Amino acid sequence: MKLLPNNVLISKAKRIVIKVGSALLVDESTGTLHSTWLNSLCQDMAKWKNRGQDVILVSSGAIALGRRYLQLTNDELKLEEKQAAAAAGMVRLAHAYQEELGQHDISVAQILLTLDDSENRRRYLNARSTVMTLLSVGAVPLINENDTIAT
Q: Carries keyword ATP-binding (predicted)?
């Protein structure tokens, strides 16, 4: 069996799902976005979209962005503080992706999910339908756990 290089595998894929963790996206010491890295990621996504590939983005980072914005400086946040940070940070996270991808005329649509959404058949089908519709109109679904209620 011959293994193909990653770039060949990606170029042949119909759909690309990207998972971005907080550590890649947010500078832990300043609480700010790694904007150069984000720009590079969005350029890659634009390249894939231009080739006709579907792109789905699963991104963490809302709590990390929101904690600095709300000036929550404790090392260990209480549950309510994490939820508040997630609420404030998700707005900033979605905006950052929209700003970067918007430069390539790519729309971003946010989908916040909980474990219940994957376990309840009707909610799962609704979420799947939303993702498929977004892909069909050329948008990039930005998926994250709804940490304001799930953390």
A: yes
